[in-house]
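Re: your question about Flagellar biosynthetic protein FliO

S., sorry for the slow reply, the queue was backed up all week. Below is exactly what I fed in.
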Amino acid sequence: MLIKKISLVICFIAIFSFSFLSNEISASSSNVTDWLNEEEKGENSPDEQEGNNQEEQVEQGQVEENGFMLFDLIKMFFALVLVLALIYVLLKFLNKRNKLFTKVRALESLGGVSVGQNKSVQIVRLGDRFYLLGVGDNVELLQEITDANVKADLIRQDEAQQGTGGILADLFQSKGKSTTSTMKSDGSDFKDLFSGELKKLKNNRNKLIQQQKQKEDRHE
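Result:
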């Protein structure tokens, strides 16, 4: 909202400055034209208005015309400098705001995919780390994403899409397949893949629990 206000103020100042300068130029041009017309009328007057007075007036008119043009050019130059300075300040402000916004984005969700009824897999970014979470009746940490290429793809797609979702699904889609049918088939394959991974993780956890119980029984 603040950016829109600043942009409107800059546009208003620029329009006002150029309209004011154009009015000044047209006014000065009309004054010079009127003066020249009066001089032409004076040439048709009696001989008393001829001679040295006419030459002095013509020279004075040329000097005034040059002075008006020079003054208008100076005003246009300073108006242009003012507009460029305002644009520069606005760009600096936007750059600073983007840096602050990037620093604040320490914890964010990069999207997810549904793998069943009321179940989904989400990617969460915490600083420079990426985590894969299973969300259902409870939230469960599946694994930490450590592959540098995958992390780079996540960052790139997050910057391109800015929270539009679908980041996780896009990572597993093959390049060049952009039709609707292909997207649906890839989505189903992805769901099957993650369902299998979830089952494996649960089985491994159950095995670890059983092994721990067996160790406790042996100690007893």
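The radius of gyration is 38 Å. The longest strand covers residues 107-116.

Happy to talk it through on Thursday.
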